Amino acid sequence: MSLSVRSLTVGYGRSTVLADFSLDVGTGEFVVVAGPSGCGKSTLLRAVAGLVPFGGSISVSGQPVDGPSRDRALVFQEDGLLPWRSALRNVELPLSLQGVPRAQRRALASSWLERVGLAGFEDYLPRELSGGMRQRVQLARTLAQQPSVVLMDEPFGALDAQTRASMQELVTEVLSGTTTLFVTHDVDEAVLLGDRVVVLGAGEVERRRDAILAAVRA
Ligand SMILES: Nc1ncnc2c1ncn2[C@@H]1O[C@H](COP(=O)(O)OP(=O)(O)OP(=O)(O)O)[C@@H](O)[C@H]1O
């Protein structure tokens, strides 16, 4: 099991957002977390990322989570790129912080930019790229670090329908085989992307993609 969440409880002040929540995600599985606004989807991701204190236990590849680690990469709706660095140098930054030698990180960064469809845009600054392209850079930056688990929090919420569709296609391609927890409140997106969809709130419901598709088509 790649990611294991056991009896997770998270609260802010006196209010409990998640109580006794458990979830297992297999290696390479793409699990979508859906549910109404405020049900705790982002809170779940923040707990797995090690950014909020929690009760219960979370482990990744058998290692307990007790704080942030580059092994668990979190991708947000806002792209978080540094505006003064080119696309290539944005992708390179975390690699350089990890001490990857220059030639190697440059090669890795440009091959990831190519994989996300941005060959030829290496020297562009974030402001010279569209929202969808900035999300592609962010995806390249995340995946170049080879995290064990990718955590995505409504990454395409701000994109127009067409760009969103092409990003969904890209994600299924580049994240295939990567253990992923993907938050969305868009049911179509959940069904399209998830090997499995977990619905939070009103008692957690967990359905396999085929069961959802059957229900949607019925
Ligand atoms: N830092 C915080 N301090 C206090 N309360 C918070 C904090 N972050 C979230 N909450 C509360 O916790 C609950 C769950 O929030 P969370 O962001 O996890 O929900 P969500 O399902 O991701 O919602 P959305 O779909 O709207 O993004 C909400 O009631 C929210 O107001």
TrEMBL record:
Gene Ontology MF terms: ATP binding; ATP hydrolysis activity
Name this protein carries in UniProt: Nitrate ABC transporter ATP-binding protein
Highest rank taxon of the organism: Bacteria
UniProt lineage: Bacteria, Bacillati, Actinomycetota, Actinomycetes, Pseudonocardiales
Domain ABC transporter: 3-218
Keyword field: ATP-binding, Nucleotide-binding, Transport
